[in-house]
Amino acid sequence: MTQNLLDPGFELTLRPMRYPDFYERYRDAIKNTWTVEEVDLHSDVADLAKLSPDEQHLIGRLVAFFATGDSIVANNLVLTLYKHINSPEARLYLSRQLFEEAVHVQFYLTLLDTYLPDHDDRAAAFAAVENIPSIREKAEFCFKWMAAFDGTEEVDQLDRLETQADRRRFLLNLICFAACIEGLFFYGAFAYVYWFRSRGLLHGLATGTNWVFRDETMHMSFAFDVVDTVRKEEPELFDDQLQQQVTDMLREAVEAELQFARDLCGDGLPGMNTESMRQYLECVADQRLTRLGFAPVYGSENPFSFMELQGVQELTNFFERRPSAYQVAVEGTVDLDEDF
What we know:
- By secondary structure, this protein is mainly α.
- The protein has helices at residues 20-31, 42-50, 53-84, 88-115, 119-126, 128-131, 133-146, 164-198, 203-233, 240-265, 274-291, 305-308.
- The chain has one domain: Orthogonal Bundle (Ribonucleotide Reductase, subunit A).
- It starts with 19 loop residues before the first helix and ends in a 32-residue tail after the last helix.
Protein backbone atom coordinates (compact mmCIF):
# COMPACT_ATOMS: atom_id res chain seq x y z
CA MET A 1 0.00 0.00 0.00
CA THR A 2 1.34 3.43 -0.95
CA GLN A 3 2.05 5.64 2.03
CA ASN A 4 1.17 9.32 2.00
CA LEU A 5 3.39 12.04 3.41
CA LEU A 6 1.23 12.66 6.49
CA ASP A 7 0.47 9.03 7.30
CA PRO A 8 1.44 8.23 10.90
CA GLY A 9 4.71 6.43 11.44
CA PHE A 10 8.40 7.01 11.13
CA GLU A 11 9.59 5.95 7.69
CA LEU A 12 13.32 5.19 7.64
CA THR A 13 13.93 4.01 4.09
CA LEU A 14 15.82 6.45 1.87
CA ARG A 15 15.97 4.04 -1.11
CA PRO A 16 13.90 3.94 -3.15
CA MET A 17 13.48 7.66 -2.53
CA ARG A 18 9.81 8.71 -2.56
CA TYR A 19 10.40 12.48 -2.45
CA PRO A 20 13.71 13.23 -4.19
CA ASP A 21 12.92 16.96 -4.44
CA PHE A 22 13.11 17.23 -0.65
CA TYR A 23 16.55 15.63 -0.74
CA GLU A 24 17.70 18.14 -3.37
CA ARG A 25 16.49 20.98 -1.15
CA TYR A 26 18.63 19.55 1.64
CA ARG A 27 21.67 19.46 -0.65
CA ASP A 28 21.06 23.04 -1.80
CA ALA A 29 20.79 24.21 1.80
CA ILE A 30 24.18 22.68 2.66
CA LYS A 31 25.78 24.83 -0.06
CA ASN A 32 24.45 28.00 1.58
CA THR A 33 26.35 27.81 4.85
CA TRP A 34 27.33 30.96 6.71
CA THR A 35 28.38 31.82 10.24
CA VAL A 36 27.66 34.76 12.50
CA GLU A 37 31.38 35.45 12.85
CA GLU A 38 31.43 36.51 9.18
CA VAL A 39 29.06 39.43 9.85
CA ASP A 40 30.93 42.65 10.65
CA LEU A 41 28.81 44.87 12.90
CA HIS A 42 31.52 47.39 13.81
CA SER A 43 30.32 50.13 11.47
CA ASP A 44 26.75 49.67 12.74
CA VAL A 45 27.72 51.02 16.17
CA ALA A 46 28.71 54.37 14.64
CA ASP A 47 25.56 54.40 12.50
CA LEU A 48 23.34 53.83 15.54
CA ALA A 49 24.67 57.03 17.07
CA LYS A 50 23.51 58.94 13.98
CA LEU A 51 19.92 57.77 14.21
CA SER A 52 17.11 59.92 15.53
CA PRO A 53 15.38 58.85 18.77
CA ASP A 54 12.43 57.53 16.72
CA GLU A 55 14.75 55.49 14.51
CA GLN A 56 16.57 54.14 17.55
CA HIS A 57 13.20 53.11 19.00
CA LEU A 58 12.42 51.27 15.75
CA ILE A 59 15.72 49.39 15.84
CA GLY A 60 15.27 48.47 19.49
CA ARG A 61 11.83 47.00 18.83
CA LEU A 62 13.07 45.22 15.72
CA VAL A 63 15.92 43.37 17.39
CA ALA A 64 13.62 42.50 20.30
CA PHE A 65 11.28 40.77 17.85
CA PHE A 66 14.18 39.00 16.16
CA ALA A 67 15.28 37.64 19.53
CA THR A 68 12.03 35.70 19.96
CA GLY A 69 10.75 35.02 16.43
CA ASP A 70 13.18 32.33 15.35
CA SER A 71 12.96 30.57 18.70
CA ILE A 72 9.21 30.08 18.12
CA VAL A 73 9.94 28.69 14.66
CA ALA A 74 12.64 26.32 15.93
CA ASN A 75 10.37 24.94 18.66
CA ASN A 76 7.64 24.22 16.12
CA LEU A 77 10.11 22.47 13.85
CA VAL A 78 11.04 20.02 16.58
CA LEU A 79 7.68 19.55 18.26
CA THR A 80 5.39 19.38 15.21
CA LEU A 81 6.87 19.43 11.72
CA TYR A 82 9.63 16.87 12.20
CA LYS A 83 7.19 14.64 14.04
CA HIS A 84 4.48 14.50 11.38
CA ILE A 85 6.14 14.92 7.96
CA ASN A 86 6.81 11.23 7.41
CA SER A 87 9.65 11.27 4.91
CA PRO A 88 13.34 10.70 5.71
CA GLU A 89 14.27 13.05 2.87
CA ALA A 90 12.11 15.80 4.34
CA ARG A 91 13.51 15.17 7.80
CA LEU A 92 17.01 15.64 6.44
CA TYR A 93 15.97 19.09 5.26
CA LEU A 94 14.19 19.89 8.54
CA SER A 95 17.35 18.91 10.44
CA ARG A 96 19.32 21.33 8.33
CA GLN A 97 16.68 24.00 8.82
CA LEU A 98 16.91 23.58 12.58
CA PHE A 99 20.65 24.28 12.34
CA GLU A 100 19.95 27.41 10.29
CA GLU A 101 17.41 28.63 12.83
CA ALA A 102 20.07 28.18 15.53
CA VAL A 103 22.46 30.35 13.49
CA HIS A 104 19.74 32.98 13.16
CA VAL A 105 19.16 32.96 16.91
CA GLN A 106 22.92 33.39 17.43
CA PHE A 107 22.95 36.29 14.94
CA TYR A 108 20.13 38.05 16.75
CA LEU A 109 21.81 37.41 20.10
CA THR A 110 24.93 39.07 18.72
CA LEU A 111 22.84 41.96 17.41
CA LEU A 112 21.30 42.55 20.82
CA ASP A 113 24.67 42.40 22.55
CA THR A 114 26.08 44.90 20.03
CA TYR A 115 23.14 47.27 19.68
CA LEU A 116 22.01 47.33 23.31
CA PRO A 117 25.07 47.71 25.53
CA ASP A 118 22.94 48.37 28.63
CA HIS A 119 22.24 45.16 30.58
CA ASP A 120 18.70 46.16 31.54
CA ASP A 121 17.83 47.08 27.94
CA ARG A 122 19.03 43.66 26.75
CA ALA A 123 17.06 41.88 29.47
CA ALA A 124 13.90 43.76 28.46
CA ALA A 125 14.45 42.86 24.79
CA PHE A 126 14.81 39.16 25.58
CA ALA A 127 11.58 39.36 27.59
CA ALA A 128 9.78 41.14 24.75
CA VAL A 129 6.90 38.66 24.64
CA GLU A 130 6.06 39.59 28.23
CA ASN A 131 6.64 43.34 28.20
CA ILE A 132 6.12 44.68 24.66
CA PRO A 133 2.42 44.44 23.68
CA SER A 134 2.96 44.57 19.90
CA ILE A 135 5.40 41.64 20.06
CA ARG A 136 3.19 39.75 22.51
CA GLU A 137 0.29 40.04 20.06
CA LYS A 138 2.36 38.46 17.31
CA ALA A 139 3.45 35.66 19.62
CA GLU A 140 -0.14 34.99 20.65
CA PHE A 141 -1.13 34.80 16.99
CA CYS A 142 1.61 32.19 16.45
CA PHE A 143 0.56 30.13 19.46
CA LYS A 144 -3.09 30.23 18.38
CA TRP A 145 -2.59 28.97 14.84
CA MET A 146 0.45 26.75 15.35
CA ALA A 147 -0.85 25.04 18.47
CA ALA A 148 -3.60 22.48 18.32
CA PHE A 149 -6.53 24.80 17.75
CA ASP A 150 -9.88 24.12 16.11
CA GLY A 151 -11.05 27.74 15.85
CA THR A 152 -13.13 27.74 19.04
CA GLU A 153 -10.97 26.32 21.81
CA GLU A 154 -7.57 24.82 22.41
CA VAL A 155 -7.40 21.04 22.13
CA ASP A 156 -4.75 18.48 22.95
CA GLN A 157 -1.47 18.63 21.05
CA LEU A 158 -1.51 16.43 17.98
CA ASP A 159 0.12 13.05 18.62
CA ARG A 160 -0.74 11.21 15.41
CA LEU A 161 -2.47 12.40 12.25
CA GLU A 162 -5.13 9.71 12.21
CA THR A 163 -8.10 11.66 10.84
CA GLN A 164 -8.80 14.32 8.25
CA ALA A 165 -9.45 16.75 11.10
CA ASP A 166 -5.96 16.02 12.47
CA ARG A 167 -4.39 16.65 9.08
CA ARG A 168 -6.27 19.89 8.59
CA ARG A 169 -5.00 21.14 11.93
CA PHE A 170 -1.48 20.15 10.92
CA LEU A 171 -1.85 22.00 7.61
CA LEU A 172 -2.95 25.13 9.45
CA ASN A 173 0.16 24.86 11.60
CA LEU A 174 2.42 24.42 8.57
CA ILE A 175 0.79 27.24 6.61
CA CYS A 176 0.96 29.60 9.58
CA PHE A 177 4.64 28.77 9.97
CA ALA A 178 5.44 29.28 6.28
CA ALA A 179 3.05 31.97 5.06
CA CYS A 180 2.55 34.08 8.17
CA ILE A 181 5.65 33.86 10.36
CA GLU A 182 8.47 33.28 7.91
CA GLY A 183 6.56 34.63 4.93
CA LEU A 184 4.97 37.76 6.45
CA PHE A 185 6.29 38.66 9.92
CA PHE A 186 9.92 38.22 8.91
CA TYR A 187 9.42 39.84 5.51
CA GLY A 188 7.95 42.85 7.29
CA ALA A 189 10.97 42.98 9.60
CA PHE A 190 13.36 42.67 6.67
CA ALA A 191 11.71 45.69 5.02
CA TYR A 192 12.79 47.91 7.93
CA VAL A 193 16.36 46.61 7.59
CA TYR A 194 16.49 47.28 3.86
CA TRP A 195 14.98 50.73 4.38
CA PHE A 196 18.01 51.57 6.51
CA ARG A 197 20.30 49.97 3.94
CA SER A 198 18.76 52.05 1.14
CA ARG A 199 19.97 55.09 3.11
CA GLY A 200 23.49 53.70 3.46
CA LEU A 201 23.06 52.73 7.12
CA LEU A 202 23.59 49.58 9.20
CA HIS A 203 25.54 47.62 6.58
CA GLY A 204 26.37 44.80 8.99
CA LEU A 205 22.73 44.25 9.87
CA ALA A 206 21.84 44.26 6.17
CA THR A 207 24.57 41.75 5.31
CA GLY A 208 23.46 39.28 7.97
CA THR A 209 19.84 39.86 7.04
CA ASN A 210 20.59 39.02 3.41
CA TRP A 211 21.76 35.58 4.47
CA VAL A 212 18.83 35.14 6.86
CA PHE A 213 16.49 36.29 4.08
CA ARG A 214 17.89 33.67 1.73
CA ASP A 215 17.52 30.94 4.37
CA GLU A 216 13.95 31.95 5.24
CA THR A 217 12.97 31.99 1.57
CA MET A 218 14.23 28.43 1.23
CA HIS A 219 12.38 27.39 4.40
CA MET A 220 9.16 28.85 3.07
CA SER A 221 9.61 27.20 -0.33
CA PHE A 222 10.17 23.81 1.29
CA ALA A 223 7.03 24.18 3.41
CA PHE A 224 4.98 25.14 0.36
CA ASP A 225 6.36 22.06 -1.43
CA VAL A 226 5.09 19.96 1.46
CA VAL A 227 1.66 21.61 1.10
CA ASP A 228 1.73 20.89 -2.66
CA THR A 229 2.57 17.24 -1.99
CA VAL A 230 -0.27 16.85 0.50
CA ARG A 231 -2.63 18.52 -1.98
CA LYS A 232 -1.72 15.91 -4.61
CA GLU A 233 -2.04 13.00 -2.21
CA GLU A 234 -5.12 14.16 -0.29
CA PRO A 235 -6.93 16.79 -2.38
CA GLU A 236 -10.08 16.43 -0.28
CA LEU A 237 -8.37 18.35 2.52
CA PHE A 238 -8.22 21.50 0.41
CA ASP A 239 -11.86 22.53 0.48
CA ASP A 240 -13.66 25.83 0.96
CA GLN A 241 -13.37 25.55 4.74
CA LEU A 242 -9.57 25.32 4.64
CA GLN A 243 -9.38 28.20 2.17
CA GLN A 244 -11.49 30.37 4.47
CA GLN A 245 -9.40 29.44 7.50
CA VAL A 246 -6.16 30.25 5.71
CA THR A 247 -7.57 33.54 4.42
CA ASP A 248 -8.70 34.47 7.93
CA MET A 249 -5.26 33.52 9.22
CA LEU A 250 -3.48 35.80 6.73
CA ARG A 251 -5.83 38.67 7.55
CA GLU A 252 -5.10 38.26 11.26
CA ALA A 253 -1.36 38.11 10.54
CA VAL A 254 -1.51 41.37 8.58
CA GLU A 255 -3.35 43.09 11.44
CA ALA A 256 -0.89 41.78 14.04
CA GLU A 257 2.05 42.98 11.97
CA LEU A 258 0.36 46.36 11.50
CA GLN A 259 0.15 46.75 15.27
CA PHE A 260 3.89 46.14 15.32
CA ALA A 261 4.34 48.74 12.56
CA ARG A 262 2.41 51.34 14.57
CA ASP A 263 4.71 50.66 17.50
CA LEU A 264 7.85 50.96 15.37
CA CYS A 265 6.89 53.89 13.13
CA GLY A 266 4.79 56.06 15.43
CA ASP A 267 3.60 59.05 13.43
CA GLY A 268 5.83 58.06 10.54
CA LEU A 269 9.45 58.32 9.44
CA PRO A 270 10.83 59.59 6.11
CA GLY A 271 10.13 56.79 3.63
CA MET A 272 8.64 54.46 6.25
CA ASN A 273 5.22 54.68 7.87
CA THR A 274 2.31 52.50 8.87
CA GLU A 275 0.30 53.10 5.70
CA SER A 276 3.14 52.10 3.36
CA MET A 277 3.81 49.06 5.54
CA ARG A 278 0.13 48.14 5.30
CA GLN A 279 0.34 48.16 1.50
CA TYR A 280 3.51 46.09 1.59
CA LEU A 281 2.05 43.50 3.99
CA GLU A 282 -1.15 43.22 1.96
CA CYS A 283 0.89 42.69 -1.19
CA VAL A 284 2.93 39.95 0.51
CA ALA A 285 -0.20 38.31 1.96
CA ASP A 286 -1.74 38.13 -1.50
CA GLN A 287 1.45 36.50 -2.80
CA ARG A 288 1.26 33.85 -0.10
CA LEU A 289 -2.42 33.13 -0.79
CA THR A 290 -1.75 32.86 -4.51
CA ARG A 291 1.17 30.48 -3.93
CA LEU A 292 -1.14 28.29 -1.85
CA GLY A 293 -3.67 28.18 -4.68
CA PHE A 294 -6.17 30.45 -2.94
CA ALA A 295 -7.68 33.72 -4.11
CA PRO A 296 -5.89 36.97 -3.14
CA VAL A 297 -7.93 39.39 -1.05
CA TYR A 298 -6.19 42.79 -1.04
CA GLY A 299 -4.97 43.77 -4.48
CA SER A 300 -2.26 46.06 -3.06
CA GLU A 301 1.06 46.78 -4.76
CA ASN A 302 4.49 46.83 -3.16
CA PRO A 303 5.29 50.46 -2.22
CA PHE A 304 8.93 49.72 -1.33
CA SER A 305 11.19 49.83 -4.37
CA PHE A 306 14.12 48.72 -2.22
CA MET A 307 12.36 45.40 -1.58
CA GLU A 308 12.08 44.55 -5.27
CA LEU A 309 15.78 43.67 -5.28
CA GLN A 310 15.20 40.98 -2.71
CA GLY A 311 13.42 38.78 -5.24
CA VAL A 312 16.82 38.13 -6.80
CA GLN A 313 18.55 35.48 -4.70
CA GLU A 314 21.96 36.11 -6.25
CA LEU A 315 21.88 39.76 -5.13
CA THR A 316 25.21 41.48 -4.62
CA ASN A 317 24.70 44.84 -2.96
CA PHE A 318 27.10 47.74 -3.25
CA PHE A 319 27.22 48.11 0.51
CA GLU A 320 27.86 44.45 1.28
CA ARG A 321 31.22 43.09 2.34
CA ARG A 322 30.80 40.16 -0.04
CA PRO A 323 28.13 38.65 -2.32
CA SER A 324 25.04 37.51 -0.46
CA ALA A 325 24.93 34.43 -2.72
CA TYR A 326 27.82 32.94 -0.71
CA GLN A 327 28.21 29.18 -1.03
CA VAL A 328 30.61 26.66 0.42
CA ALA A 329 32.08 23.57 -1.18
CA VAL A 330 31.71 24.91 -4.71
CA GLU A 331 33.18 22.32 -7.05
CA GLY A 332 35.19 22.92 -10.23
CA THR A 333 38.04 25.17 -11.25
CA VAL A 334 38.37 28.86 -12.03
CA ASP A 335 40.23 30.08 -15.10
CA LEU A 336 41.60 33.54 -14.29
CA ASP A 337 42.07 34.27 -18.00
CA GLU A 338 38.40 33.65 -18.80
CA ASP A 339 36.28 36.61 -19.88
CA PHE A 340 33.44 37.48 -17.50
